[in-house]
Design goal:
150 residues; alpha/beta; Rossmann fold; five-stranded parallel beta sheet; globular; PIN domain-containing protein; PIN-like_dom_sf
Length: 150
């Protein structure tokens, strides 16, 4: 497939650093329901509204996650699988640092790897797990440099 999938923290970074959305017009950006759900869970209503604006303004295509996790995944937006690879990713994330959103990160990482997408993230633990499992990852500023050079 090729292209990029943004971790939820990238939408925060775009908002906080006032990154021009025009950078992303000529690249293929993908999201899953997970990123939108995490934005929807933002408790500060003003911040949530701002993040929703950024999320909806980034040119994107929504794809299904490769696995389904009860309590996280949405019916019709997640594929049924044995879940083994997603479990391996989550176990590795938990071994570095147990966080409440490791299941969500594992779903995003698995989807990136399965679809040959580069994960754009500022989460160093997720970045390391992607590398360990053979996935491509970069941060937002590296992506912008790549876009500017193209």
């Amino acid at each position: 497939m090729g292209g990029y999938i943004f971790d939820t923290n990238i939408f925060n970074q775009i908002l906080d650093d006032k990154i021009e959305l025009t950078y992303f017009v000529n690249i293929e950006c993908f999201v899953t329901h997970v990123q939108h759900d995490e934005i929807q869970a933002t408790s500060d209503t003003e911040r949530r509204s701002q993040l929703e604006g950024v999320f909806s303004s980034v040119p994107q295509q929504e794809i299904s996650t490769e696995s389904c996790i009860l309590g996280v995944s949405r019916l019709g937006q997640a594929r049924m699988s044995d879940g083994n690879f997603c479990k391996q990713l989550k176990t590795q994330l938990d071994s570095i640092k147990t966080k409440l959103n490791n299941s969500q990160d594992a779903l995003i990482a698995e989807t990136a790897i399965a679809n040959q997408l580069t994960l754009v993230t500022h989460d160093k633990n997720l970045y390391c797990v992607m590398a360990k499992f053979g996935g491509a990852a970069c941060n937002l500023y590296h992506l912008i440099q790549l876009i500017q050079r193209a």
